[in-house]
Amino acid sequence: MNTRCRKHVLTFQNSLASSHDTLQVHCKSGNDDLGVHFVKFNDPVYNIRFGDNIFIGTYWDCLIQHGPKMDYFLNYRAYTLGPVPRCGQWHTWIAKDVTFRKMSHFNLE
Which family is annotated (predicted)? Predict the structure, then answer.
């Protein structure tokens, strides 16, 4: 991990206004399983802070779900280290009713 870089942040926000469902977030990176986290409607965001491993690569795979039986879901790669390492990237994932949106903010050093 590059210790000179600011850590990256993955942020998960629950804005499920019509249903007020609880958002379930489960992210993994290699052997690093963060477990299941629940974000209620309008609760503070759930953040994951991490640094890149430029020798073996860095990625985060996430499963986000909501609904009465968690029947609405998205399983996706939330972050992948690019060909050029960057510092302090901030990726925000917002759950809005049946869709998930991504907003990325890049802070280059």
Answer: Belongs to the plant self-incompatibility (S1) protein family.
- For the chain, give percent helix, strand, coil, nearest 5: 0, 55, 45
Q: Is 68 exposed, middle or buried (0-12, 13-18, 19+ CB in 10 A)?
A: exposed
Distance CA 83, CA 52 (A): 12
Pairing verdict, β 72-80 and 46-50: unpaired
The pLDDT tens digits for 13-40 are 999 988 899 999 999 998 899 999 999 9
Residue range of the domain that includes 101: 8-105
Q: CATH number of the domain that 13 lies in?
A: 2.60.40
Q: Decide: 17 and 94 in contact? Cβ < 8 Å.
A: no
pTM, to two decimals:
0.83
Contact indicator for 19, 97 with CB cutoff of 8 Å: yes
**Tens digits of residue pLDDT in 58-73:** 999 999 999 888 888 8
